[in-house]
Design goal:
By secondary structure, the chain is α+β, with helices and mostly antiparallel strands. It is built from twelve helices and ten strands. The protein folds into two domains: 115 residues, Phosphorylase Kinase, domain 1 (2-Layer Sandwich), CATH 3.30.200; 217 residues, Aminoglycoside 3'-phosphotransferase, Chain: A, domain 2 (Alpha-Beta Complex). A hairpin with a 7-residue loop joins strand 2 and strand 3.
């Protein structure tokens, strides 16, 4: 198994992450009294840090998303935050799965969990959308653009999410968080990372707007309608908070700067013949939808996003070094730390921003 097949669909529950089928059945019988058939439970293959399962009974299907077992950082894997933002956004035009119930009682399934709708449709892992028509690719990308614009325009105060994150200084706080993780690691340094931290610290733009941010908005975190090619549901809200929408959008758009042969990027591909909008066109669509005439400091936001991606990969490298991550996925992802840092610094040099 390779490529997209590593992430698509479900598989038997993995060792150490099994759910007790009887406990799930008892819980679901109270939650959904119409159940008549035994439940089948499989685990999604995708790379979520919170284990996610599909539960089927006859023609009905749901998703359980839970905290992983074992020692965890206090603020990590906050599935109650995921449930809260999904439930709030369910009242808006932002495409999210319907939520049913949050259970913080660890005695039920071993860790806290929530139950949500199982949205049926394709999930695409390759940004080039191989095998699709030009028209389909254009519709998919336009629907992604519309979806993140809707998210950034959602009224978080009206949705009672005013305390969902700290107001202001989002980029500054993110830079400190990821920079500290890199600088305090007992591992080899990357020259470009050292240069980037200093460069970014001196140029943090003023945050002029606050919105709900997804934190990891990308193609493979969405379910699409197989026929209409519209986004049906945005998934994986673990990193969601209140923050700078431009940083959130740039993290999504950085794939236009990533070579297509590096890591699900678009740079270097013949986008016109594929029917995929170029970066400027995609940017203009977002600005039109959000009422902007331009995005100041755009290159800063892109470079910051590439730095953040490098820092995430670097953290995986450190865990491999300390023996706490050893999977094939971890090795592959960790190896991207240096290329992403170099790519980010190349953007600085290319734009003559130093």
């Amino acid at each position: 198994m390779s490529g997209d097949e590593l992430y698509l669909g479900t598989e038997p529950m993995r060792n150490g992450l099994e759910l007790d089928p009887k406990a799930v059945e008892n819980y679901f019988n109270h939650l959904f009294p119409f159940l008549e058939e035994n439940l089948s439970i499989t685990q999604f293959r995708g790379g979520q840090s919170n284990p996610t399962y599909r539960v089927i009974s006859g023609k009905h299907a749901w998703v359980i998303r839970r905290k992983p077992p074992g020692p965890l950082l206090p603020s990590a894997h906050a599935i109650d935050r995921e449930y809260r933002v999904l439930s709030a956004l369910g009242k808006t035009n932002v495409p999210v799965p319907k939520t049913y119930n949050l259970c913080m009682d660890e005695n039920i399934l071993g860790t806290p969990f929530y139950v949500m709708e199982c949205v049926n449709g394709p999930v695409y892992w390759d940004a080039l959308l191989p095998g699709k028509t030009m028209e389909t690719r254009g519709v998919v990308y336009d629907s992604m653009n519309a979806s993140i614009a809707k998210l950034h325009q959602a009224d978080f105060e009206f949705l009672e999410l005013g305390d969902f994150g700290r107001p202001g200084n989002y980029v500054d706080r993110q830079l400190k968080r990821w920079g500290r993780q890199y600088l305090e690691a007992d591992f080899e340094r990357i020259l470009e990372m050292d240069l980037l931290i200093e460069w970014l610290e001196e140029r943090i733009p003023e945050q002029t707007q606050t919105s709900i941010v997804h934190g990891d908005f990308r193609l493979d975190n969405m379910v699409f309608d197989a026929e209409r090619n519209q986004v049906l549901a945005i998934l994986d809200w673990e990193l969601s908070t209140l923050g700078d929408p431009l940083a959130d959008f740039a993290y999504h758009v950085m794939q236009w700067r990533i070579p297509f042969d590096l890591h699900r990027g678009l740079a270097g591909a013949d986008l016109f013949s594929l029917g995929i909008p170029d970066e400027n066109t995609y940017l203009e669509s977002y600005c039109k939808r959000t009422g902007r005439t331009e995005i100041k400091d755009w290159d800063f936001y892109i470079i910051f996003s590439l730095f953040k991606m490098s820092a995430i990969c670097y953290g995986i490298l450190v865990r491999i070094h300390h023996g706490t991550a050893a999977s094939e996925h971890a090795l592959k992802t960790g190896s991207l730390a240096r290329p992403f840092a170099k790519l980010a610094w190349d953007q600085v040099l290319k734009k003559n921003l130093d």
